C-alpha cells in the first residue's frame, strides 16, 4: 500500500489553518441549524443532513434508541436508495453494543476497519453496502470501513440516545484528528438538540393542554409543574407587562443550581439584572415569542456562565399573554470549545502566535479599497467639508459629508513619509527573517529549531506594546504590526527587536545564536494586504543584502 509523498503532506499542512477555519465556519452553521428544527423528526433529519452538508461525508444515518432499548434507523441523508432500504428498520441493542466495543476508539468515536468489520455482515443491524476500488494509500477509506459517533444525554449517566453512522468521506481518506474532533463535537451537539427537541415536545404538549382543556386546568398545571421542576435544563417564569415586567416569578432547581442562587433570592431579579453588561443589548433584542439568545448570566460568586435562552409565551384565555416561559440551557462547555477551536484555527500551533490567516485578517480590517483623502490632517478635511454644500436626503434630513463625499466614518490608514520624519504616525509592518536558522536545524535537529522559534516568538512579544500584533508567517518568518509609529519609531523598534533576538538562546544545555533581518513597510488604504506584506518583505531583503554575511550569520 502506498504512502503520500512529503510534498503532498507539506501542501496539506500549509493549507491546514484555512481548512480548519472553513471547517469551523461550516460546523458552526450546521450546529446552528440543529436548534432551528421544530419537531423531533425534523431534528433527526437535520442531524443527518448536517453531516453530509458540513462534515464532508457522502452518507449519514441516525440510529435512535427506542424505549425498549433497540435502535431504529430514524433519518438518512446522501442516498435516496439507501434511505428507502433501511429507514425504519431496527437493530438490537446487543448488536449495537458489540459494534461500539470493537475496532479503534477515537475519543468518543468508534472506527471499525474493514479488516475487522467482516464479522458484522450477518448481524441484525440495518446496513448498506458501498462499492469502490481497493485503497491505494494507508489512510484511504475502504468501502467496508465503519465509523460511528455515539450520542449521549447530558449529565454523568452517559445514557445512550443514539448513534450516527457515516460513510464515504469526500476526500477519500480516513478523518484525521481535526475531522475526528469535528465529528465528535457535532455528535455532542446533536445529542443536546435531540434532548431539547424531546423537551420542547413535552413542553408544547403541556401548553396545548393548558389552552384547550380549561376544565382540566388543575391536571394540566400539575403536568406543567413536573415538567418545569424536573427539567434537566434551567427553566423560569417571568412577569409580562405592568410595572414588574420581566421579574422572575418562579425558577426550577436546575436554574438555581446553575447560577448558585436560592429560589427565594431569584424572585428579586429579572434576567436584565443578571446579564453581563456586554450582553444587555442582545437580551433586549430578544423577542418574547420564540425569541432565542446566547448570553452570559451572573452567578452568586461573581463569575458568569454562558447560557442559551429560548422564550415562549404562556397565554391566559381571559387577559391574553401574561407570563414568559424561558428555557435556560448551560452552553459553557460548547462556548469554551468553540473559542478553543477558533484559537487553534487562527494561531500557530508551535509558538501560539497569530498565524498567517489571522495576520491577514487583522491587517485587512485596517484597510479599505479607497485611497486616503488628499487632506493632510483631519482638521483640513473638516474645513473642506464646510466649504461645500451639505448633502440632504429626500426626506429633508441632512447627512455628513467631507469634501463633497458622504462621510463613511472609516478612519483611514496613511503611511508616513519614509524620507522625512515630519511627526506623522502610521501602521508599521515589520517583516522579520531569521539569519542562520537553517544551519541550526541542520546541525542540531528540528527539535532545537522549534525551541529557537518559540524563544524568538517570546522575545518579539515581550519587545512590543500591548495591542501590537506579533504573527508567524511560517518557517522562520515573523511579522509585527505596530500602530501609531513614525518612521524613526519604527526603525528604533526594529533595532530593539533585533538586539533581543541575537542574544544567545539556551537549548538542551548549549547556547545557539540566530540573527535577524527586518524590513519596515507601511500599511495604507488603497493597498491590498498582499501589497503591504510584499513591500515589507522587499525592504527586508534589501536590508539583508546591505549587511555583510558576517553580521547576519548566527553565532
From TrEMBL:
Keyword presence, Coiled coil: yes
Cross-referenced Pfam families: GAF (PF01590), GGDEF (PF00990), PAS (PF00989)
Gene3D superfamilies in the cross-refs: 3.30.450.40, 3.30.70.270, PAS domain
InterPro entries in alphabetical order: Biofilm_reg_signaling, GAF, GAF-like_dom_sf, GGDEF_dom, Nucleotide_cyclase, PAC, PAS, PAS-assoc_C
CDD domains, alphabetized: GGDEF, PAS
Record's keyword annotation contains Coiled coil: yes
Keywords, sorted A to Z: Coiled coil
Name of the protein this chain belongs to: Diguanylate cyclase
